[in-house]
Amino acid sequence: MTQSTAASAIEVMLARGSVRKYQAGVEMPQADLEEILTLAAKAPSSWNLQHWRYLVISSPEQKQKLLPIAYNQEQVVDACVTVAVLGDLEANKTGHQIYGEALKEGHITQQIHDTMISQIDGAYTNNPQFARDEAIMNASLSAMQLMLAAKAKGYDTCPMGGFNRQALIEEFNIPARYVPVMLISVGKAEAPARPTNRLPLDQLVIQDCF
């Protein structure tokens, strides 16, 4: 599959794999990066709160800072960019913005606005575990969409959970509002993803109940 090929969603999903070796020195055009992130941000989210934020690490200097934080996984240096996907622990604040704008533009009534804001604030008030669960779950939806969008644009990716989250927060000045969910390297493959065995559906699917 080439970048010029109009790939179907199924083709992209089948072609995607976790690539760990990238062509060093390849620069990603800003337009490609913005399109990938725009598509990633189209992911669904609870109450449309869009819990994800993307910390894009692309300069050689910042990549070197990231390297020990990522336990010296060389892909964060060789890939075009590494995106730290962050989850928003205070996504209810975004709800006020989103539903306020929808009300102003006449897309919803005052009653719908008030009902939605009441639901959101009620769920988030004094419930840090709910906020964390929602941040990680919804940011993960966007992370998967990011990887598929990148593959459709001719780039390969690898999601990484193996990194020092506290060190990432401190080195890159991440505010307390956001929780690091995963790192995703994005670049041009130097070597293909390793083949992986997949469990058969009869081990994965439970029909109706256990």
UniProtKB/TrEMBL annotation:
Annotated ranges, domain Nitroreductase: 15-188
Record-linked SUPFAM superfamilies: FMN-dependent nitroreductase-like
One of the record's GO molecular function terms: oxidoreductase activity
Pfam families: Nitroreductase (PF00881)
UniProtKB keywords: Oxidoreductase
Family: Belongs to the nitroreductase family.
Protein name: Nitroreductase
Biological classification of the source: Bacteria, Bacillati, Bacillota, Bacilli, Bacillales
